[in-house]
Amino acid sequence: MDWSWERIPSEFLVTNVRLCRQGVLGRRRGFLHVRKGRLEALGVGAPTLEGIPVLDAGGLVCAPGLVDLHAHFREPGFEEKETIATGSRAAAAGGFTAVVTMPDTDPTIDNSGMVRYLIDRGREAGLCRIYPTGAISPGRKGEAMTEFGDMVAAGAVGFTDESHPVTNGNLLGNALKYAAMLGVPIITHPEDQSISGRGVMHGGYWATRLGLPGMSRAAEDAALFRDIELARAAKGHLHVAHVSTKGAVGIIRRAKDEGIHVTAAATPHHFSLDHARCRDYSPLFKTNPPLRETDDLNAIAEGLADGTIDAIATDHAPHTATEKEYQFDQAPFGVIGLETALAVGITWLVRSGLLDLGQLIACLSERPARALNLPVGKLEEGAEADFVLIDPDRTWTVASGSFQSRSANSPYLGETLTGKVTATFLRGRLTWRDEADSESR
Ligand SMILES: [Zn+2]
User: Fold this and answer.
1) Domain count, the chain
2) How far is the centre of ligand 1, averaged over its atoms, from the C-alpha of 242 (Å)?
3) Angle value at C-alpha 307, between 303 and 308, nearest 5 degrees
4) Ligand 1: centre distance to CA 75 (Å)
5) What is the pLDDT of residues 197-227, one digit of tens each?
6) What is the structure's pLDDT at 126?
7) Does residue 246 share a domain with residue 145?
8) How far is the CA of 186 from the centre of ligand 1 (A)?
9) 303 and 342, same structural domain?
10) Does pTM surpass 0.90?
């Protein structure tokens, strides 16, 4: 890519790009015209404007800024794992310009003041849009309901007690009703803990072989059945986080067919890695829900292809190196994912022919934005200029030193992936530029 200027001017053209819009990657080269943080114009061919600085992108793919529906930025309370600033940097490096954050901080995001605090800290960092979710119950204790109206007025985009499942069905039913009145979803982590018990990985061959307690698929499927029936009764919007079983994909497909307002997301690790990865007892593969079996991975890929699963969301869950050196059964659940999501999608879904690149990008931009009603994720005239430039063919090896995140607990360490974010722009400002790109071109 030809970076002919060091500072990004307030008006510029990006030329020689393949535009990705509405899930379709254009064949012909095109351009973007950015002016004062907005997309003034875009289209195929070459622009006829003169006297405006030009960035020749050399044929890179130009896509909407990516949108993540599920990240744990850990601030306040766990700043040794991640902060809003480092999480935002990881997001920008991964091509994300909008991130929905989870409320499981300390203190919990369970009131309007905390929602405002997150949004303000996100603005200070200035690298991505932060859309906070609030907790359903104070302290995520599952006992009473928080003040949904106040939090939505402050900017909350949904409610969840992630990663605690709400066991009190009456509370969840009421939450679905109130959230529906406010036009926002309840995000569920479907897990019946009376079934998953003390499981630390998927309940299957490898759990037995390794002598570790397993979490049955039934824990997810049974909880999801209940949540969907509650959404049906409440006429509410249920958003299902991190779908991991083939059963859950089927349940969601049927619920959608029946007209229930349900949306869903799956993580990159749940369509790319299976439970055999746990065979060396490495906690880097310990997640909740757990890595499952080939059938489940295939069902998730099919669900993304046919739209049953609306979006790919990272469940970016940073943990310190020390915590991930514990024994498998002692280590915390969770992996980071913002900086590898796009490449994992290209490597596992696009290269295998399960999705084309346009569909994959839609799963990471327009579709998540639509699922949660966020005013982002589109490349169109007049929209704010949030976009990414992607080299879909470049291969790179994931190394622990390469992360912008404060943590490096990635299950892809040492893995060679295809596809790299070359540059990320938020409101027309550069938030990430890949250094290897500037060296190699
Ligand atoms: Zn969860």
Assistant:
1) 2
2) 7
3) 55
4) 17
5) 999 999 999 999 999 999 999 999 999 999 9
6) 97
7) yes
8) 13
9) yes
10) yes
